[in-house]
Design a protein that fits this description.
This protein has one domain: Glutaredoxin (3-Layer(aba) Sandwich). Helix content is 18%, strand content 36%. It contains four helices and twelve strands. A hairpin with a 2-residue loop joins strand 11 and strand 12.
């Protein structure tokens, strides 16, 4: 009997090599991002438990970049948030100052750096996403990939030129994140609950300022390899007087 050798596709070979190297096998460029949802939450907030499934569903939707941002101001209730970062608390407060709001809340969803709603209010959040897609979608094309142990970010041109204001600028940010994590909460209002998070932000690193013209930003891949992170995304965001504003573009890193 004659034996024939099966031909293994080159892509399958690469998958095996990637898996053995612990790198995963993913496309170099992820799908385009149409909208960004930032969910400010806390393990010590009883109301936040209803926002977790909303985020898990959003993270599975094509074109949606769903980011979880754990804050720290609920720690006084008896449970120290194991993922909370002061920088994320400050980001939420900066959003509030930009809107002229006096207080912050959890769970709170911010869509594309602008409109906000209660994070557990799924219908309201869906309406904001639909409105954003109709009236103000992310306007600047972006892509990000790994090349020779470096993260390479490509930013397109601004669709329509505008005169820059002296107190405003557009910035590119690298956002290391934890793709998924379950946390058992032992004390406080959510005692005994297991919180299941997706795309948990672990830091914000500024890569540079964007002038409105096509640009390329590079940073060592190690910049995203901070403790507790296993993925990354990039954001292009307008800021004014140091306060975050509208997100103009975004791109997902490999595996997201």
């Amino acid at each position: 009997m004659r034996h024939t050798r099966a031909r293994i596709p080159l892509s399958a070979c690469r998958a095996v090599v990637c898996a053995l190297a612990g790198l995963g096998c993913v496309p170099a460029r992820a799908e385009p991002v149409a909208a960004v949802v930032e969910m400010f939450t806390a393990q010590g907030c009883a109301a936040c438990r209803t926002a977790d499934p909303v985020m898990r569903d959003l993270a599975r939707k094509p074109g949606i970049l769903a980011l979880t941002l754990p804050v720290t101001y609920w720690d006084y209730l008896g449970w120290h948030d194991t993922l909370g970062l002061r920088a994320l608390t400050e980001r939420q407060r900066a959003y509030a100052r930009a809107r002229g709001a006096r207080q912050v809340m959890t769970p709170q969803a911010v869509v594309d750096g602008g409109q906000t709603t209660i994070g557990s209010n799924r219908p309201a959040l869906e309406r904001l996403l639909q409105e954003a897609s109709r009236t103000a979608p992310l306007s600047v094309p972006m892509s990000a990939e790994v090349q020779d142990s470096r993260i390479v970010v490509e930013v397109g041109a601004r669709p329509s030129p505008k005169e820059p204001k002296p107190d405003a600028r557009d910035e590119v940010w690298l956002v290391p994140l934890l793709k998924a994590r379950d946390i058992t909460i032992e004390t406080g209002e959510n005692r005994g609950r297991v919180a299941s998070y997706v795309n948990v932000v672990r830091g914000l690193q500024r890569l540079g300022t964007w002038t409105g013209q096509p640009a390329r930003f590079e940073v060592p891949l190690s910049a995203a390899a901070i403790p507790g992170a296993d993925g990354w995304v990039v954001l292009l965001q307008h800021s004014r007087e140091g306060r975050p504003g509208r997100i103009l573009g975004a791109a997902k890193g490999p595996g997201l």
